[in-house]
Structures
1.
Amino acid sequence: MIFRTTPSRTARPALRRVRTAAALRPLRHRLDPARMEEIPFGTSDGVRLGLTRVDTGDPARPAVLLLHGHTASADMFLLPETRNLVDVLLDEGYEPWLLDWRGSCRLPYNETGRRYTYDDVALYDIPEAVAHIRGRIGERPLFVVAHCIGSLTLSMSLAAGLVPGLAGVVSQGVFLTPKLGGRTSLRMSVAGELLKTRIDHIPVDFRKVGLWSKYTPLFALASRRASCPDPTCQILHNSAWGTGASLFVHENLDGATHDRLAELLGPAPLWILPHLRRIELARSVVRWHDTDHRYRALPPNALDAAARIDTPVLLLAGSENGLWLDSQRLCHEVLAHRQPQLDVSYAEIPGYGHLDTFLGRGAALDVFGHILDFLGGRR
């Protein structure tokens, strides 16, 4: 029989497989598994996060909380193929803590489930993780080393007075004064409007989406004038999820790290772009929720409330940062003029971009010394 008068059951389109549970993907590391304490942790607004403590066996060590960037995860501090930041902190007498906030690629929230803004990270994720850690470490000093959006949202938490009394903060890439390139800002605005009715996130792993998918034109655009044949590298190094920016200096990555990029960085949600665009246009970290009273603890503009920052801050940036450009130098200059009483310093790493300040094969030699000098002077 050639024709059917009733639809076939097999003709229904297959459902796309996505992660819907908040189960954390296991961390990859070379430490003794017995030392890795995975702590069940959720926020007061009902979101499950990931919190990991590296047990040192020494209850007197200062603690250091590590905050990843958006779509990254705690994995970025634990690379087994290089001497990573956790290795260095352990050797120098610190107790590392790693938070997978709701933008982590170890969690499903960027692709499915509950949507959020950076207000939620600043109001819930970071302050409640800090409170939990303080409940465990008592009076020991607590430092924070934060990367990219983890640093940007931390700046809002600090300006709101939600994480007082930190021993020191290392901010990498961007802090209170976000600054994107003109092309990046334009693409972000245009792409956000054109694509928001078709897709809700931009993936990085071409092997998962396949050739015949709605994402193929984005990967094709990212491959233009690319020197690396790997599609994941192209959409990150050559395009930064289609924005035209670059996330790292290619030559700084170890081969094994390069091959793991699709594991280390996940899909970027497009529904976060309106908040990010408002932040970038203001050249400051601004609150998204203006009428929701749940967020009234956050200041409308974190830069205007920077006087509440009560901890020393090291602003760190690679000289070749292709995403946030000279945001950190700008932040240092603005704070020196507007809030000269704050203890804020700036260090620039020659030859480094954005992500490679932590993922680079030589970061332990070229970057981490600046972090250790800062922490050591305040422990």
2.
Amino acid sequence: MERFRELPDDPRLLGTRRHFFGRASLGIGGAALASLLGGAADPSPTSPDAARGSLGGTHFAPKAKRVIYLFMSGGPSQLDLFDYKPLLNQMNGKDLPDSVRQGQRLTGMSANQAALPLAGSIFSFARHGQSGAWVSDLLPHTAKVADELCFIRSLHTEAINHDPAITFFQTGSQIAGRPSIGAWLSYGLGSMNENLPTFCVLISKRPVDQPLYSRLWGNGFLPSIHQGVQFRAGAEPVLYLDNPPGVTAAGRRKMLDRLAELHRKEHDANLDPAVSARIAQYEMAYRMQTSVPEAAGLASEPDHIYELYGPDARNPGSFAANCLLARRLAERGVRFIQLYHPGWDHHGGLPGGIRQLTKETDQGCAALIQDLKQRGMLDDTLVLWGGEFGRTNYSQGKLSPTDYGRDHHPRCFTAWAAGGGVKPGVTFGETDEFGYNVVADPVHVHDFHATILHLLGVDHERLTYKFQGRYFRLTDVAGEVVKPILRA
């Protein structure tokens, strides 16, 4: 079968299951070692090199080469941004009907409220573009690129609290410890560049209401070379990359060469694939000493690009600056770029809070779409926007004419996608007139992941890794590609 590799000739590899399965499933580290020591990597499908990944290529022709995922941590309110529900305004203040709720669970934050008053959005909605997509007045820049976007209004998840919900979207499981999406793609498809990581992470420099753990971009049980690398604002984009005072580049090169010799001896003695992975990481870090400052050098961008992304683009660590950096990383062959913008958890004071969050993100999102398009990159770059769940149609806490909050709502919420083989100017899925349940074309988290992999040329059922006696995959045992949103 495709999943099983030919048994190696070296009898030492047959001594333990750990050695056999480690060597059988980890061709990347060996290839990195061969490259470092001047040898040629085995080009056969059973020993893929780091550039090709474990699959040795895609399963079918990909629509997208890379992904930029704009993750709005905290759960943005779809009812105040994209999912227009005039009935909520008509019934503002009236209790959520039992026939709509249908006994579905609530969080502990609103389960004990005496009433669940429906809360219409105080923001205005209008149709935009030839597609006629509904977008609120909070997002004037996004509205201008509505015809480039595919709105998915029928996403749903099982997780009702932040940690499991964010973990689910990033790893395909609510339980921590699984590989993240970017790690799976790094493992399966490999790298498109030699001097930058395959998977990069950017976090907006702003107050965080919900923690963003490094495990969200971790490698899980995959080799450590597949974990995401976080870029930070400031003079040192990647921590511990620069040489210490008194250490020259030539000195660092000699040290790595001697260290490689020691690692080769260790690898030959123990056949531990982690040793090979460590060598690959050292070598990547050495190359990144030059490539990272160049990629992160936003000062080289012309004024008209800064004007496109807005004044915040000149503020290192802002969402707009990170969108611009994401475009630069995409240009340089980074396969998966994850942006996190925290702060969307509006249990109270939603109108004021969401105004600030959309002000911080709206222009950057639209500029990224426009910038990629004008460079001819949007067709093969998949851009995603969304959070871990949506918000309730009723108010958590006191409802007033100018203020309200919304609790977590996993039953239905909205995300959008652009480029990378997705149909533009499409709104897919439908919620009921109360904005509480999906009534047409539901899209589960596993379906969302299966579709991302499909657009990159990967069959989600065939990208697997054996760990602790079973084959794991990003979509676990579920997931269907959402074919109606795909370009022919």
3.
Amino acid sequence: MQEDMGSAKAEGFLRKLGRIIGSAVDWFEVTILAGGTAALAVILIANVIARTFFQSIYYAEELSLFLIILVTMVGVSYAARKARHIRMGAFFDLMPPKMEKIFIFVISGVNAFVFFLLAYHSYDYVHKMQMLGQRTAALQIPYWIFNLIVPIGFALAGIQYIRTIIKNIVEKDVWLSPEQQSEYEDEATLGY
């Protein structure tokens, strides 16, 4: 009896910890996406105004490139966590929930593998760039720093797919991502 209470407390603690980590990751990703997009807009608009009336901002292109890479890679992780990635919804709608769950396991496992593989290769590329010592033209910042977010973004996306697998193991219902439950509705509940 006490073992059941202990495992229930542990499960409750793990769920709470998962929600806290999920909230922190959500805040981080949304802040980066919103801030990066706003900063990109400000820099590009300021550069257009400066180029029209004065002189172009010499570092605007490099900073814009970095912000585009940052927003793209954080966006990959965000899309995986919120199930905003491309999927074949029509096929899922036709499948029974058990088959849908099996497909989610396979798709999430393959996606996690691919993203971790991409993270490995992009880290290798960044490491080679670091060894070459190449710097950006305007700001003279080591170029590898600009690309460091790429392996991090791929790894975060892989982690989101692993979280999806874990969520589908723990929960009875089908989850497309750690935070998005499947929209599958049984015909019996719809009254057909």
